[in-house]
Amino acid sequence: xxxxxxxxRGSTRLKENEKLRVIDDVQRKRRQRKVMEMLESxxxxxxxxxxxxxxxxxxxxxxxxxxxxxxxxxxxxxxxYYQFKYRKNFQQLVDEDRLESEMKQRPSYMDIQCExxxxxxxxxxxxxxxxxxxNCLSCGTRxxxxxxxxxxxxxxCLKWAA
Amino acid sequence: xxxxxxxxxxxxxxxxxxxSTRELLVKQAKPSPxxxxxxxxxxxxxxxxxYSKDEEPRLIPNCIMKAKSERKRLFVGKQxxxxxxxxxxxxxxxxxxxxxxxxxxxxxxxxHVFSKNVCPIEDNPxxxxxxxxNFKSIQDCIDEIFFEEYEVTNLFRCVPTDLAYxxxxxxxxxNKRHACVIVDSGYSFTxxxxxxxxxxxxxxxxxxxxxxxxxxNHLKDIISYRQYxxxxxxxxxxxxxxxxxxxxxxxxxxLLEAAKPLSRNSIVRNxxxxxxxxxxxxxxxxxxxxxxxxxxQILRLNNERFIVPEILFHPSDIGxxxxxxxxxxxxxxxxxPIEQRESLSKSIILIGGNCKFPGFKERMYAExxxxxPDKWHVNVFQPDDAATYSWKGGNALLKxxxxxxxVVTKKDYDELGSMIIQERFNNFMFDYRELQTQSKPDxxxxxxxxxxxxxSGSIFGKSDVAISIExxxxxxxVDAEGENSNSGQSEKDELxxxxxxxxxxxxxxxxxxxxxxxxxxxVVQKDIKVPEEEEENxxxxxxxxxxxxxxxx
Lengths: 162, 553
Description:
The structure holds two protein chains of two kinds.
Chain A: H1 12-19, H2 25-40, H3 79-85, H4 90-104, E1 134-135, E2 142-143, H5 146-154
Antiparallel strand pairs in A: 1-2
Chain B: H1 17-28, E1 38-42, E2 46-51, E3 58-61, E4 64-66, E5 74-76, E6 90-92, E7 95-96, E8 99-100, H2 103-113, E9 126-129, H3 136-149, E10 154-158, H4 160-172, E11 180-185, E12 190-196, E13 199-201, E14 206-208, H5 212-226, H6 234-244, H7 251-258, E15 269-272, E16 283-284, E17 298-301, H8 304-307, H9 310-313, H10 325-334, H11 341-346, E18 348-351, H12 360-371, E19 380-381, H13 389-399, H14 401-406, E20 408-409, H15 410-416, H16 418-426, E21 430-431, H17 433-436, H18 443-446, E22 467-468, H19 480-483, E23 490-496, E24 506-512, H20 516-539
Parallel strand pairs in B: 1-9, 9-10, 11-18, 13-21, 18-19
Antiparallel strand pairs in B: 1-2, 2-3, 4-5, 4-6, 7-8, 10-20, 11-12, 12-13, 12-14, 15-16, 15-17, 22-24, 23-24
Helix pairs in contact in B: 4-13, 5-6, 10-12, 15-16
Pfam family, one (chain A): zf-HIT
GO molecular function, one term (chain A): zinc ion binding
Keywords (chain A): Metal-binding, Zinc, Zinc-finger
């Protein structure tokens, strides 16, 4: 039996896959970084009081410092004073620390960080949490079964991928 | 009991190991008068505070919270107990990665802590903890706040593990030169700090950027993906984590158990979420009772229960490249002087809130046992309440001679200025001598290589080959005694690099001629490094990774 040229056999799945958008390494890393930032964040949502106009009814924190009342009033400082004087973000602090540690010949904050692991990474299915031995073709996320793959493709596959 | 000789902690004069033992005996004879102090263990999430006479500290959340239900009020520290509805709490935390950066939050919380009905200072000396290598500008601000704002008479700042160490040696009546490793796993990070001769061994200190916050956020993320959207419920999910998570002894086995159908599954738990109406704090539904009230909102937890704390042991599970906690302890021990290593492995102390996961200690023991040489004794100690152990050490510090030698009075602060007093605090229990000898390479150590039959070799189907990944710069070196039997043979390395995205080559080992070893390793390293460097260039860009790629990937 001969196969005519026009009717070549092939799987529709493979054809579909060719259309897939594959996220490259740079983007995968960026995505991983976003996940890490999420894991380090204090809150996911926005300040629920952000739209509030603060009125005078809000208690002032200085009110409950009784012990200081009979002492030198000059010393009293508002929170803003410290915030203004010592306003530095974390990165600035780390940089300063690095300079200082070089001068003093001691290890700095960055130096004591753990080295890379010598053990191979384990892989868990992103959907159900059990061992996942397959990679998503477009984003590289792990999954364990067709069912989890479908869930993954429908939900998070291209999330965070700019 | 714990009387140090005073001069050993001043930067100008350095201790001579021969002299101090004699001095110790003399000083022990002196009885120390009872001193009262306020001890403040300033954790990034929980402040442990109390007077030295108290049995237990008070636990106060180190944050300001905003609730959705009460729009005109901020809840500072303990005031959260007055909040009716704790859903969707918004946190203002003073610390960023464990270091205080938001003074507008920290100051009100301290004001709250020192207020009349919590724990007023009342002219007591203050013992305050701070993270390791606390940044200078943070220290300046702390000094200013405490001396000028709160007008404390005496202040002593130290690292929480110092207090834990003092507590440990006092509890056990060890002498002050006792060597131990303290693993402090807190909210923002995990520190591994070996103590040798009563001071921190700087070169071997390690930090793992995994803490309770990361675990809670991860749990929040996977629950939100699999069941309910709880991304805004950090407060509730933190309780879920505390109530249900545990550390498994064997993940593979546990996963098989978790995969069983619900009727035969011993791991799955139904957790009743709080509704802040009748239920203020969630709880695990009794598995024996099948019927439950309809009003309960149930969260079903299965493999999440042990997969989440697993990040501590294998940060690679969430894509971090850093080594796990057990591996880091081994690394830290192996960076210490060769003669101390064995005694270090005999006392490994686990403190900090993360250690409270059930099974944590057993797992640590199992991992360390398999990673350390089998001739050594491995002893892991975890206090009953790992979170307050450091605080309790404040009492031990108070009784020691060092406290009186190193405490800073208001007068000192005014006269000497913050530079000098910071030196004093930062040099407390800190051994700088070994840093100066660092440059000399240890020739004895170089001869031996660590033939690791790492436990992980058997993880997930790769059990047949003993695999270890090698990096020339950080080879684990092993004590001669442990590896004497192997010293005759040497290894020849064969390389097989996998394409599957692992950046590091996998090196299989087999017995071969000793001379060839180094060459082969070097060749191998070159082969791997070329593609790696091209890729890494991007990762090193500061815009993308302000804290370096290690902390993320």
